[in-house]
Design goal:
With 460 residues, the protein is an alpha/beta fold. It is built from 16 helices and 16 strands. The structure holds uridine-5'-diphosphate-xylopyranose (UDX).
Amino acid sequence: MAEIAVIGCGQAGLVVATAFASLGHQVLGIDIDRRKVEACSRGICPIQEPGLDALLADGVQSGRLTFLAEYPDRIEADFVFIAVDTPTLPSGASDLRALKSATNSLAPVLRDGAVVVNKSTVPVGTCDEIERVLRTSGAPGATVVSNPEFLQEGDAVRNFTRPDRIVLGSNHPASLARVSSLYQDFDAPIFACDVRTAEMIKYASNAFLAMKISFINEIASICDVLGADVSHVAGGMGLDPRIGEKFLRAGIGWGGSCFPKDVTALEYAASLHGVRAQLLRGVVETNRDMRRQVIRKLRAEIGPIEGARVVVLGASFKPHTSDIRESPALEVANLLRFGGAEVLVVDNHVAPDAVTAQFPHLTVADDLLGAADGADALVLATEWPEFLELPLEELARVMRRPLIVDGRNVLDDRIVRAAGFVYRCIGRPGAEGGGIVINEGIDREPVHLRNGRSPVLASD
Ligand code: UDX
């Protein structure tokens, strides 16, 4: 078993620290946030992530997991993971201040022979720079291995303990081999490459996934005008294993703490070196346009949105997380608000203060029916399970105008329309009542929601 230190106990770092401790390693977590360290030291998880609280409590109780808010005089660990935030600056560049500060703090306290493993998403070339700084400021023998994380919020513990792949990049084969020994019992391929390639794999992976979503969203916009159904287009495409069914759910687009920042940072890095990454620009622009589509669809039904009362269902950037960073739902809410609409956001999984601290002009409501009273439209923006079972009849009764714009294509259009609503969605004009039904009167199974998301006809 190894001694491991993890610098940064946020969304990624805490998963890494607790998971390695659960495998029997001795782990020290270091974070400059004293309150977070105090909570973690008592086994109280400061982050909402399924399974993490149990891992943390076990680790602390067993004594294999400890935390510090300051760097000790010497870190005895064989491996020091860096997992600090690298947000985007307004210019599009990555903000590497936390990473630089961690590197500077580490240099004088690293023990000889320790390998520094970087998990933070960083511009290509950053690990070389970390190594240079470490070697010139107190740790002449330091080596760095890039080990990008591919953790999805809400599924991060499983993603870490049962990964699809482990990417290790280093210019030092011996260090890379040592880090790979940490993962020897994981049932996943270990992909070894040079350090810059590993850094790029992380960006390229996130950019590709964002592109896949923007692609299906662009197809959805075309479906809207040509009369095809994007859900079934995605279903039909996804059966080709070269394409795959995942990340083809059309809607108001992607958000969160990773995709927006990583696509922007990659495009920025390319432009800095004279490469016009046109596809990446398109990926971002299409994503932005999906938010605007909601406004256009509302306008088509209710005319000017100024003065309209609109309830936005969802505040988090996706279901099963309270994270509102770069949330498509809140971007739609903001567009509506700035267009002069009265906007009420309903999401009982997100603290109202978290929304209003960032967007004071938005109103958060906890009572759906109260919010919908007199409303002109509902916009389903985050597909929380409870929004799949809306009290449609009651809502139709209290709303001034029973209109739903389903920004995630998750509702059963026939049920919604049967309750008296006008139904609008993304890339499924037939579901909106505008398509030509050729088998009217023919008995068929109702539309089922596969995984609660993509509709498929059971008997067609
Ligand atoms: C993502 C990557 O999946 C993960 O590998 C990386 O390490 C961090 O970034 P996460 O931000 O947790 O993870 O969210 P993810 O589940 O990937 O969803 C991102 C966004 O895309 C959400 O806003 C989601 O609603 C949207 N999305 C996802 C779609 O609009 N359609 C889809 O088909 C899939």
